[in-house]
Design brief:
about 190 residues, mainly alpha, Arc Repressor Mutant, subunit A, 2 domains, 9 helices, elongated
């Protein structure tokens, strides 16, 4: 590349950024309003979804023919996923009847917050929903997700680890039961 090519590239990016800013200022406001009313989403969460949509648009950019339609569709799809995560969080108030000790602690520790669940990949959210909302066994979850039982257990454990990590990062203290486990493993009591 020569200096002329570099300048053309810089101008092209600058023009794209300006167009994106204008698009965000107009369509972004409409998307925010739509998400807030359609999914009864808190304003901050609707804003997060709009930002996720625009991030996805930047990646898809040149391949999108109907920009406004694509943005609306993506906003509704991402908004629906977020709303489902939120509904799942509200519904988890007790562990499944056959819960493991880790699952029971997860519910007691209040790990199922909307922001934490949104950080779990979709397959993990679905596994958590089946386990904690529908009280399915690992075998039933494996059948539903078309994976081995071992992987269903691993997916739940990995998803709970993400929730626990988010819980710690939020500064909510040491979750219930961890001190007892540490003292048992180190051979001390107290």
């Amino acid at each position: 590349m020569n200096i002329f090519d570099d300048e053309v590239e810089r101008l092209r990016r600058s023009a794209e950024a300006e167009i994106l800013d204008r698009l965000f200022a107009t369509v972004g406001v409409q998307l925010h309003r739509t998400l807030a009313t359609t999914f009864r989403m808190p304003p901050k969460d609707a804003e997060d979804v709009v930002q996720d949509v625009f991030s996805a648009y930047v990646t898809a950019g040149p391949r999108v023919a109907d920009t406004a339609g694509w943005l609306r569709g993506a906003a509704l799809q991402i908004g629906k996923s977020s709303a489902e995560s939120y509904a799942m969080c509200l519904a988890i108030t007790a562990p499944p009847p056959d819960a493991t000790a880790e699952e029971t602690r997860a519910v007691q520790d209040g790990l199922f917050t909307w922001k934490a669940v949104r950080d779990v990949p979709e397959s993990g959210r679905e596994a958590l929903r089946l386990r904690f909302q529908e009280h399915r066994t690992f075998r039933e979850i494996a059948d539903e997700l078309k994976i081995a039982t071992f992987y269903a257990e691993k997916l739940i454990a990995k998803s709970l680890a993400i929730l626990r990590k988010h819980h710690r990062a939020a500064g909510t203290g040491t979750p219930h039961g961890e001190k007892e486990e540490e003292s048992r493993s180190s051979g001390t009591s107290g």
